[in-house]
Amino acid sequence: MATVIGKDGHLISTIEHLLSAVYAYGIDNLRVIVDGDEVPVMDGSSASYCILLDEAQVVQQDVPKKVMRIKKEVIVQEGEKYVKLSPSPDLQYDFTIKFPHPAIKTQEYVLKFTKETYKKEISRARTFGFLHEVQYLRSKGLALGGSLENAIVLDEKKILNPEGLRYPDEFVRHKILDAIGDMCSYRDELYRKL
Length: 194
Ligand SMILES: [Zn+2]
Prior knowledge:
Layout: E1 4-7, E2 10-13, H1 16-24, H2 47-56, E3 74-78, E4 81-85, E5 92-99, E6 105-112, H3 115-122, E7 128-130, H4 131-139, E8 152-154, H5 170-185, H6 187-193
Parallel strand pairs: 7-8
Antiparallel strand pairs: 1-2, 3-4, 5-6
Helix pairs in contact: 1-2, 1-5
The structure holds zinc ion.
């Protein structure tokens, strides 16, 4: 339920929210030091990382950037889910989710990507989970720090967070946040495949 990367037997999990913010700020050279095997979940979104990156400022370096240009359509499908990369003059994410849950149902969001649209429309969208999953994870000793402070939690019918949602379609917006982070983490692998 999180993106895990690793090298030489060392693994680090839940990197997608941090890398999503890092990508949004155009950063491709960064040392991240983590105490433990998991990146802090913060409030379940990437907003805190955006605030820290704004404070730290981005430094331009002298080495040319590697960029990935999509020259032909690529589709990866698994059951009913698919991801499609298409050539486009600008970066745009179009995401649709379908959940058989009355508070989510079908949601679609199209992000015309800039750092500013990311910060305003995407970065505050929190991760979400279902109560039965949280209970199961806890029984396995996982997600012990998981609470209504760092995720939207749903029971079978409704959202349990008393403050409600930050965006009416926060669920699909969070999926875009994840997709941006995951594209960033798998970039080197994608270079090899495309
Ligand atoms: Zn996420």
